[in-house]
Amino acid sequence: MAARRWLARRMAEAGLAPTMDAFGNLFGLPPGSEPCLLLGSHSDSQPEGGWLDGAYGVIAGLEVARATREAGGPPIAVVSFQDEEGRFNPLGGSRVWAGVLSPEEADRATDIAGMTLAEAREALTTFDISEPVPASRFRAFVEMHIEQGPMLDDAGESIAVVENIVGIRGERYRLTGEQNHAGTTPMHLRRDAFQGLAEFAVRLNERLAPVVTPRTVWTIGHATLHPSAASIVPGRAEFTMQWRDAETARLDQMTGIIRETAEAVARERGFGLERWAYAEIPPRLCDARLVEGLAGAAEAVAPGRWRRMTSGALHDAANLVPLMPTAMLFVPSIGGISHSFAEDTSRSDLVLGAHVLACASATI
Questions:
Q1: Fewer CB within 10 A of the end CB, N or C, for the chain?
Q2: DSSP string of 214-268?
């Protein structure tokens, strides 16, 4: 909440009215009621996350809004969406605001410690809460972000205009075997839940290989064993499964393979299998007119040093595509590193990115 208060003060100093809804989405609105351009991203981070993921888009958008207002330009609003990183729900704040996720369903979601979003939201009672800002208040949305990958940095380029955003799916799994003594239980009699998880991971790579592309990714990002003791054969393994691709048909195919593989491992090893918390966000195409406007600004500011690309990371912009014309800009991530304390972008590229955003905002 301290960070939200700090950002609200910066918005007010820029001549914007800070407005936060019940799910923590913080908007800075310009005077008047005419539909305006919306800039921004998110401010939350990952455990050991970097300093630019999301926050750069919010601060760059805020500076463009401030400078444009000071220069007498068109009104610009700024947003920092809450829980983009998915402590409770992937892109949670923007999904609720866009009507993709109901408040009731969002509140039931839990983090890995078992806290519900409804419980976490109790902290918001110390903030002035407003009704959600209607989408009709905005005529378009542009999200500025770091690439979080190596393509721009490897090519020595400074800007990317995003044409489409991959879809993402995920769910949680539990394999239940049999907890037993690690010293006296023969290997052939064990129903070791971790061995089942390991077999699932290996089989899954083999089964997905014929259907995926070089840009398709899948991840077991979090796993826990029970009771997690050195001298006990683990009786339970819980893990997250996430998969991403730019094509809905391929995501469907991957969903079937992932579930079939887990079921086969459980059946062959005599395990119990549970899965829950399924969520999906479909692939999205950015607005063609906005994309061309951003491309024109990129060529004007950084001639020959920009490209068009697909976003392999998921962003709040994906949820706004059905509501209004939406597009994205990327600046390079040094070494392609993100979701790490080592995440960084050169100062010159950060400034150049804001310059492109400002130029585009004056014309789109």
A1: N
A2: TT-EEE---EEEES--TTEE--EEEEEEEEEES-HHHHHHHHHHHHHHHHHHHHH
- 150, 333 Cβ separation under 8 angstroms: yes
Residue 273 CB partners (closer than 8 Å, separation 6+): 173, 174, 175, 176, 262, 263, 266
Per CATH, which fold does 167-281 belong to? Answer: Alpha-Beta Plaits (3.30.70)
Read off the amino acid at residue 282.
Answer: P
Residue 32, class by beta-carbon neighbours within 10 Å (0-12 exposed, 13-18 middle, 19+ buried)? exposed
Q: What is the mean pLDDT of residues 106-113?
A: 92
The answer to whether the CB of 29 falls within 8 A of the CB of 40 is no
Q: What sign for the dihedral angle of Cα 56, 57, 62, 68?
A: positive
Question: CATH 3.30.70.360 in the chain, residues?
Answer: 167-281
Instruction: Categorize the per-residue pLDDT at 277 as very low, low, confident or very high, splitting at 50, 70 and 90.
Output: confident
Alpha-carbon distance 346 to 307, whole Å?
Answer: 18
